[in-house]
Amino acid sequence: MDREIKKALIGREEISARTAEIAEEITRDYRGRDLVMVGVLKGAFVFLADLVRRVELPVEIDFVAVSSYGSDTESSGVVKIVKDLDLEIEGKHVLLVEDIVDTGLTMKYLTGMLRERGPVSVEICALLNKPGARKVEIEVKYRGFDVPPLFVVGYGLDYAEKYRQLPYVGVLGAVEGRNETS
Ligand code: IMP
Ligand code: MG
């Protein structure tokens, strides 16, 4: 069933401007360092693509894919690695690029896993951040926008695999929060 987008929460111009600012910060912070930017599939693919094209450094790009056990809209905290990195990260700086940090459980797990491989640093860059939904404390070094605890879609984020291609971030009409399932 298709649901209507109730409203655009963050427009494409706003996303583009903020992405440019973050890319500038990353360029400044990682100059002269070996940086691997790691997109978390699938949600981060749009943000990562726009972000890396504005980072003026010779970065390496890789991806991980995770799935959390349990229902799709409720994070269980138990994360399964569906696709691991292809690159070695020992001695390198890792920047995880995520669509949204909600409970923080996925990022907690991933940063912990990657830190065991001997990188110099592991940091997080998230387009969206839901501060009200946190279950574990996690530092998000680069944050695009804070959003209210609503279920959002677009710009990579899906609801049941739909809406990822929207060029903006919107709120779904009938969906009030992430605990409501299809
Ligand atoms: P966390 O482990 O609870 O932080 O979950 C993060 C993941 O849940 C994100 O990577 C998204 O895939 C998904 N997620 C959380 N909130 C939303 C939302 O509002 N819209 C779409 N996906 C979401
Ligand atoms: Mg995700």
TL;DR?
This protein is of the alpha/beta class and 182 residues long. Helices cover 20% and strands 31% of the residues. The chain has one domain: Rossmann fold (3-Layer(aba) Sandwich), CATH 3.40.50.
Task: Give keywords.
single chain, alpha/beta, Rossmann fold, six-stranded mixed beta sheet, 3 helices, disordered C terminus, binds inosinic acid, binds magnesium ion
According to CATH, what is the topology? Rossmann fold
Q: Cα distance, first to last residue? A: 9 Å
State the strand order across the main sheet.
4-3-2-5-6-7
Bound molecules: inosinic acid, magnesium ion
User: Biggest sheet: strands, sense, closure?
Assistant: 6 strands, mixed
Into which percentage range does the β-strand content fall?
25-35%
Number of helices: 3
Tell how many strands the DSSP assignment holds: 9
Structural class: alpha/beta
Helix content percent band: 10-25%
Based on the structure given, which CATH architecture is correct? 3-Layer(aba) Sandwich
Written as H for each helix and E for each strand, in order along the chain, the element string is: EHEHEEEHEEEE
Q: Outline the low-pLDDT stretches.
A: 175-182
Average the pLDDT over all residues and give the rounded result.
91
* Number of separate structural domains: 1
Shape: globular
The Rg value, from CA coordinates, equals 16 Å
CATH class: Alpha Beta
